[in-house]
Amino acid sequence: MADTDAFEDWLNAYARAQDGGDVALLKSLFSADAKFFQTPFNKPIEGAGQISEAFAEIWARIVDTSFKIHRIADGWAHWTSGGKIEALEEPHRTSGIFKAELNANGQCEKLTFWTETLSVRESDMLSQRDA
């Protein structure tokens, strides 16, 4: 793992990429052979190019976005995002933590997400089920 300052720099750049939907910046944050686990139990997406494409696909579906992130420990961060799923005209909110493992160059080699997604449609379905 790189030092704490390197993680802080990486985290700030990651936030800028998320805020602006900057695929090129996001790609530069990952090593060529990086692994991204959307959940700890899924097969990883491998390689900086594939990882940035996966994020670009998500960004293309969500409009009017907001993104906030803060460091909770070295290599760990909590984030929240919101926006609207354009095709459904539905709000989309996510909250999660991630663990990022950086190499000596300050690039991420492994990123693992633990995420909770809650949209109005999902919550409506849950409240109807529980009623």
UniProtKB/TrEMBL annotation:
Coiled-coil ranges from the UniProt annotation: none
Alphabetized SUPFAM superfamilies for the sequence: NTF2-like (SSF54427)
Residue ranges of every copy of the SnoaL-like domain listed in the record: 13-81
InterPro entries recorded: NTF2-like_dom_sf (IPR032710), SnoaL-like (IPR037401)
Entry protein name: SnoaL-like domain-containing protein
UniProt source species: Hyphomonas atlantica
